[in-house]
């Protein structure tokens, strides 16, 4: 049976994160030929909505509000619930990111829904879909199937390949007005530490070191190699604890 599946896209610095496209690919398998609806929440997301369609979404709903510029659980849950009440999907897909790991269980619990988190692969399609996820710190994998009812899943970045980009693909982009109010927390400013290079969570190449590097200076050649390869620098917990490399 075909299903309507909603995908929450994630935006960082005005652009869609790659995990958004991976989530669309997962949604396509879950839908079994049904409709895949992209959702974007933010203060200015209308201009990038068509990118979700180019990667496989059938249509996109945007919710724009000043309180959605920066993520807070209250604001995003209010906006997303408004979309859910309008669409009534059979399944919802998030990225297994800081945002997705915070928001998905909150919404799923409100709707008394099942949640399968950290999915790395999907076997089968539609009602026959089986979700594979790591357990015991990645030492084993389990296969999980949703028996019935509304399903929430989160997909681990860099595991499910996105569909091929099709710039000629078209679909409807609709704006939904939501009054985001009664927030317990409002973020007025975010001060980010200056960082260069590729986001570690989305890097295709990671150059990593540990205590064996022996010093902060020892990490400098690794950083140069990461830059040369267009990748990100990684480090073990021990190396970070020894101040060889920054935790971020």
Share of helical residues: 25-40%
CATH T-level topology of the largest domain: Rossmann fold
> What is the CATH class name of the largest domain?
Alpha Beta
Instruction: Please describe the biggest sheet, giving its number of strands, its sense, and whether it closes into a barrel.
Output: 7 strands, parallel
CATH superfamily of the largest domain: HUPs
Shape: globular
Q: What is the CATH architecture assignment of the largest domain?
A: 3-Layer(aba) Sandwich
Strand content: 25-35%
Radius of gyration: 19 Å
Supply the number of structural domains. 2
Could you name the ranges where pLDDT drops below 50 across 5 or more consecutive residues?
none
Protein name: Electron transfer flavoprotein subunit alpha/FixB family protein
GO molecular function: electron transfer activity; flavin adenine dinucleotide binding
Family: Belongs to the ETF alpha-subunit/FixB family.
Pfam family, one: ETF
Strand-helix topology:
Layout: E1 5-8, E2 11-12, E3 15-16, H1 18-31, E4 36-42, H2 50-54, E5 59-64, H3 73-87, E6 91-95, H4 98-110, E7 114-119, E8 121-123, E9 130-135, E10 140-144, E11 151-155, E12 172-175, E13 206-209, H5 220-229, E14 232-235, H6 237-241
Parallel strand pairs: 1-4, 1-6, 4-5, 5-12, 6-11, 7-11, 13-14
Antiparallel strand pairs: 2-3, 8-9, 9-10
Description:
This protein is α/β, with parallel strands linked by helices. The protein has two domains: 5-175, Rossmann fold; 200-241, no CATH class. It is built from six helices and 14 strands. The protein has a seven-stranded parallel sheet with strand order 7-11-6-1-4-5-12, sandwiched between helices. Strands 8-9-10 form a three-stranded antiparallel sheet, with helices on one face. A hairpin with a 2-residue loop joins strand 2 (11-12) and strand 3 (15-16). The radius of gyration is 19 Å and the shape is globular. The chain starts with a strand and ends in a 7-residue tail after the last helix.
